[in-house]
Design goal:
By secondary structure, the protein is an alpha+beta fold. Among the domains are: 231 residues, Immunoglobulin-like (Sandwich); 68 residues, Golgi alpha-mannosidase II (Immunoglobulin-like, Sandwich), CATH 2.60.40.1180; 113 residues, Immunoglobulin-like, CATH 2.60.40.1180. The protein contains 13 helices and 51 strands. The strands form ten sheets. It has a nine-stranded antiparallel β-sheet with strand order 5-6-7-8-9-10-17-16-12, with no helix packed on it. Strands 31-30-28-25-21-20-19-33-32 form a nine-stranded parallel β-sheet. Strands 1-2-3-4-18-15-14-11 form an eight-stranded antiparallel β-sheet. A hairpin with a 3-residue loop joins β5 and β6. It is globular and about 85 Å long. The chain binds alpha-D-glucopyranose. The site of alpha-D-glucopyranose has 9 residues, from loops. Pfam families: DUF5110, Gal_mutarotas_2, Glyco_hydro_31_2nd, Glyco_hydro_31_3rd.
Length: 799
C-alpha cells in the first residue's frame, strides 16, 4: 500500500493531449483530453505554481504552509501558443508546456534548461481511499546536486537518496533513518552552478527520490491530495531560499534571551533540584538564560496542572528564578488525560474538541498520562480554546516559554506510533482523515500554543519550541531535532540537521546538546557544546535516565571549556541577533552550508561539516575523539583563524590544528564582529561600549549590526538600531564608514574597536575628517581604539 516506487506501475495514468487553454489574470489553465487540468500560476517572475487535477475541476485551494502575506506580483507575463507547445514567459523564466502530453520544461532567458519533466505528472487511482497517488518525475543530469528537506539525518547533498516525509516519533533515530519528526517537502537543485527550488505543498505522506531508483530521474509523489508544487528560480541558492522562506513565512524576532544558553533535562524536580541547578550555573559562572521543566512538573502528566508536592508554589518559584535571570520554560504535550475530574479534559469533552475516529468514537491512545484524547488543532475553534488555556501559566505564574512535544502526534504501544489513519480532522473547514492531517498536526498545535503564549506574554515576546513541524511552522515556533543519542555519529548528524533546517526555512533550530539518550563522555559533551553555541537554538537536554548532563557532571576541564564557549556565545549575541534579523527580514538562513555560501565552487557541493555562522564566521566542529586538529575545507576568500588571528587563503582543503578547548573557527577578512561583554544572562549588565572586532582586509567588506530593546514590539515601530560598517583597507589605509538607521538609542555610548591584522604602523587617525589627538603608541600596543559612537568616517593612515 505504501507506494515505494513512483514509476514501474502498470496502472499509472498520464495526461493526454491538451485540447484547450484559458488565461485568467495570473493563472493559465490547460485542459487535457482526459479531464486533467493543469493550472499554472505566476506568483512572481521567479516563482511559479503548478497544480493538477484529474477530476475536471479543482477542490478548495487551502494550504497551512503558505504565508498569506507572501509577496506576489510579476513584472512581465506573456503567453504564446505555438504549433506543438504553449509558452509562458516572465521576466525571469520561460516555461514550455507540450501540447501532446502536458510535459513541462523551464528555461532561463538564455535558453538554459533549468528543470524538465521526465514522465512529468502521472497518477495512480486509489480505490481504497479515493483520489489519487500523485506522482511527478523530472529529468536529472549528471552532476546535479540536491539539498534541503528539513531534518533528514543524512549527508548534506541528497543525491542518490530516497526520503520519506511522515512526521514520526523516532526515539534514538540513526543515521539515514527515515522518516523523522519534521516534514519540509522543499528541496534545492543545483546544476551547472544554477540553483532552483521545488516546494511540493502536500501534507499527505510524501516521498522524494533523488536519482536513487533511476540514475537520471528525480521524482516526488504523495499518497493522496494534489500534485501541487512551486518552482522557484535562483540562480543563486540564496534567491531560492529567500523566496521559499517568503512563501512559507518568517517568524517575528524572539526575545534576545531565547538566543542565550538553555538547560534542560527529563526532569528537574522538585523545586529544590531546579534551584540547585540554576544556582550552580551562577556559582560556576556559566551563562544561562532558561531552565526547562519536563513532564514531571505536572500532576500525573495532566497538561496545565502542577504537581503540588514537587512545586508547592510555582508562581513564587518562577519569580525567584526570574530574579536570578532564569526564564522558566514548561513542556505541554497534546495528549489530554482521560479523567472526568480534570478540567481541561472535561471542557474539551463538553465542547467536542477531541479528534474522532471515522465511526464516531474519540481517538484514544496512550501517552505519558496513560489513555488520552487529543484536541483537533486543525479546528480553528479548538486552537482558540487551546490558546486561552495558557492564561494561568503565562499571565499568572510567569512562565516565559512553552515546549510542545509528542506532536507528530506520538502514540505509545502501537506499531505505527501514531493515530490510525481513519481519524477525522476539521482541517480548517476542509474535513479529512489523518492521512492528510497527520503531517501538519504538530504545526497546528504549535500555532495554537504560539497564539496563546503571545497573547498572555504581551507586551513581551513569546517563545515556543516544537518537535514536529511542517513547512511554514517557522512562523510560530523554534524547534529541536528530537531524541538523538550521545554518540559521535550523532554529533555529525546534529551538525548537518541544523544546517539543513536552516536552508529549509526553519532556522531557529538546535539539537539536544550532549545527546538525549545514553551518556556522553566529557569529551563528547565538550565537542557538542563547542558546536552547539553556533546553533541558532542552544540547549542541553538529556533523558535523565543515565548520568547527569549538566556541564559539571563531567570534570573541571569540561566546565572550563563549556564556560569559554558559552561566554563566546554571549559575547556574540549582537551578531547572532543580527543574523536573526536578516533571517526574518530577508529570508537569509542563519547557518550557511558551504554549498550555499559559494555554490560556484564545486568543491563545496559535497561538504557536510563546515558552515558559515551568520555571514562572516566559518565554523567546523571536531567530530572525533582525541583530535588534535582536523582537515577541513576553507571556502574561497581570506579568513582569520579566530584563535590565532593568522590569515589563511581559502579555496582549499587544509589541516587545522586545534586544542581540546578549541574547534576551527575563522572570521572573514574585512568583517566587523560586534560583541557584548560576557553576561550571566541577557540584560544582566549595563555596559557603556560595544566591542567591534575589525579584521583588516585589503579591499572592501560590509558588516551590519541590528539591535533593539531585546524584547517587546517597539522595533516594529522603528525603534531599532541598524548599523552598517563599510570597511575599506588599502596598503597604508583603513577606512570605516558607519551608517545608522532606526530610532532606537542603544544604551552604550562608545565603540571599542579591536584592530586585527592591521598590516601597517599607524601614522594618524581622523574622525569625520578631523585628525584626533590620541595616544598612537598605546593603540599600537593594545590594538584597540575607543571611539565615540556618533562617528561617520574613521580613517586610519599608516606609515
Ligand atoms: C520526548 C521528548 C524529550 C522529552 C521526553 C519527556 O522523548 O523528545 O525531549 O524529554 O519526551 O517529555
Amino acid at each position: 500500500m505504501i507506494t515505494n516506487t513512483e514509476l514501474e506501475f502498470k496502472g499509472d495514468l498520464y495526461p493526454s493531449k491538451i485540447v484547450s487553454f484559458e488565461h485568467d489574470v495570473d493563472s493559465v489553465f490547460f485542459h487535457s483530453d482526459n479531464s486533467v487540468i493543469l493550472k499554472v500560476t505566476i506568483v512572481r517572475d521567479s516563482l511559479i505554481r503548478f497544480r493538477y487535477t484529474t477530476k475536471g475541476y479543482f477542490s478548495n485551494d487551502f494550504s497551512y504552509a503558505i504565508d498569506k502575506s507572501h509577496s506576489h506580483g510579476y513584472n512581465f507575463l506573456e503567453i504564446t501558443e505555438e504549433l506543438e507547445f504553449y509558452k509562458i514567459q516572465t521576466s525571469k523564466v520561460k516555461c514550455i508546456i507540450q501540447k501532446i502530453d502536458m510535459r513541462i520544461s523551464i528555461f532561463d532567458l538564455n535558453d538554459n534548461v533549468l528543470l524538465e519533466d521526465e514522465l512529468g505528472f502521472h497518477w495512480e487511482e486509489s480505490y481504497e481511499f479515493g483520489g489519487n497517488i500523485v506522482k511527478m518525475s523530472k529529468a536529472s543530469k549528471d552532476g546535479e546536486c540536491f539539498y534541503g528537506l528539513g531534518d533528514k539525518a543524512t549527508q548534506m547533498n541528497l543525491k542518490g537518496k530516497r526520503l520519506e516525509n511522515f512526521a514520526t516519533d523516532q526515539y534514538a533515530f540513526q543515521k539515514d533513518q527515515e522518516p523523522l519528526y519534521k516534514v519540509v517537502p522543499f528541496y534545492i537543485g543545483l546544476q551547472h552552478k544554477q540553483a532552483y527550488g521545488i516546494f511540493f505543498d502536500n501534507t499527505f505522506r510524501t516521498f522524494f527520490d533523488f536519482c536513487h531508483e533511476r540514475r537520471n530521474v528525480t521524482s516526488f509523489w504523495a499518497e493522496g491530495g494534489e500534485m501541487n508544487y512551486y518552482f522557484i528560480h535562483g540562480p543563486q541558492m540564496e534567491d531560492v531560499v529567500a523566496s521559499y522562506t517568503d512563501l512559507t513565512g518568517k517568524p517575528e524576532l524572539p526575545p534576545l534571551w531565547a538566543l542565550g544558553y538553555h538547560q534542560c533535562k527529563w526532569s528537574y524536580f522538585p523545586e529544590s533540584n531546579v534551584k540547585e541547578v540554576t544556582a550552580k550555573f551562577r556559582e560556576l559562572k556559566i551563562p544561562c538564560d532558561a531552565i526547562y521543566l519536563d513532564i514531571d512538573y505536572m500532576d500525573g502528566f495532566r497538561c496545565f496542572t502542577w504537581n503540588k508536592e514537587y512545586f508547592p508554589d510555582p508562581k513564587r518559584m518562577v519569580a525567584e528564578l526570574a530574579e536570578d535571570g532564569f526564564k522558566t520554560v514548561v513542556i505541554i504535550d497534546p495528549g489530554i488525560k482521560i479523567d472526568k475530574e480534570y478540567s481541561v479534559y472535561k471542557e474539551a469533552l463538553e465542547k467536542d474538541y477531541f479528534c474522532k475516529r471515522a465511526d464516531g468514537p474519540y481517538m484514544k491512545g496512550k501517552v505519558w498520562p496513560g489513555e488520552c484524547n487529543f484536541p483537533d488543532y486543525t479546528n480553528p475553534e479548538v486552537r482558540e480554546w487551546w490558546a486561552g488555556l495558557f492564561k494561568e501559566l503565562i499571565s499568572d505564574i510567569g512562565v516565559k516559554g512553552v515546549w510542545n512535544d509528542m506532536n507528530e502526534p506520538a502514540v505509545m504501544e502501537v506499531p505505527n506510533k501514531t493515530f490510525p489513519m481513519d481519524v477525522r480532522h476539521d482541517y480548517d473547514g476542509n474535513p479529512c482523515s489523518h492521512r492528510k492531517a497527520h503531517n501538519i498536526y504538530g504545526t497546528q498545535m504549535a500555532r495554537a500554543t504560539y497564539h496563546g503564549v503571545k497573547r498572555f506574554a504581551y507586551p513581551k515576546r513569546p517563545f515556543i519550541i516544537t518537535r514536529s513541524a511542517y513547512a511554514g511552522a517557522q512562523r510560530y515556533t523554534s524547534s529541536w531535532t528530537g531524541d538523538n543519542v550521545a554518540t559521535w555519529e550523532h554529533l555529525w548528524i546534529a551538525n548537518i540537521q541544523v544546517q539543513r533546517m536552516s536552508i529549509s526555512g526553519m532556522g531557529f533550530t538546535g539539537s539536544d546538546i550532549g545527546g538525549f539518550a545514553e551518556q556522553p563522555s566529557g569529551e563528547l559533551f565538550t565537542r557538542w557544546i563547542q558546536l552547539g553555541v553556533f546553533h541558532p537554538f542552544c540547549r542541553t537536554h538529556s533523558s535523565g535516565d543515565h548520568g547527569d548532563q549538566e556541564p559539571w557532571a563531567f570534570d573541571e576541564e569540561v566546565v572550563d571549556i563549556t564556560r569559554k564557549f558559552v561566554n563566546l556565545r554571549y559575547q556574540l549575541l549582537p551578531y547572532l541577533y543580527t543574523m536573526f534579523w536578516q533571517y526574518i527580514e530577508e529570508g537569509i538562513p542563519m547557518l550557511k552550508p558551504l554549498v550555499y555560501f559559494d555554490q560556484a565552487d564545486t568543491q563545496t557541493h559535497y561538504r557536510n561539516d563546515e558552515f558559515v555562522f551568520g555571514n562572516q564566521i566559518l565554523v567546523c566542529p571536531i567530530l572525533e575523539p582525541n583530535a588534535i586538529g582536523r582537515r577541513m575545507y576553507v571556502p574561497r576568500g581570506q579568513w582569520y583563524n579566530y584563535w590565532t588571528n593568522s590569515l589563511v587563503n581559502g579555496g582549499k582543503e587544509m589541516w587545522v590544528d586545534t586544542k581540546y578547548d578549541e574547534i576551527p573557527v575563522f572570521v572573514k577578512a574585512g568583517a566587523v564582529i560586534p560583541k557584548y561583554p560576557v553576561q550571566q544572562y541577557v540584560g544582566e549588565l549595563e555596559f557603556d561600549e560595544l566591542t567591534l572586532d575589525l579584521y583588516y582586509k585589503e579591499g572592501k567588506e560590509k558588516s551590519v549590526v541590528y539591535e533593539d530593546a531585546q524584547d517587546g514590539y517597539d522595533y516594529k515601530k522603528g525603534r531599532y538600531s541598524f548599523l552598517t560598517f563599510q570597511v575599506t583597507g588599502k596598503e597604508l589605509e583603513l577606512n570605516i564608514q558607519l551608517h545608522k538607521e532606526g530610532k532606537y538609542d542603544t544604551p552604550y555610548s562608545m565603540y571599542k574597536i579591536n584592530l586585527i591584522g592591521l598590516p601597517f604602523k599607524i601614522k594618524s587617525i581622523e574622525i569625520d575628517n578631523e585628525e584626533v589627538a590620541v595616544d598612537i603608541e598605546a593603540i599600537e600596543r593594545d590594538n584597540y581604539l575607543i571611539v565615540d559612537k556618533e562617528f561617520n568616517v574613521l580613517h586610519i593612515t599608516g606609515k
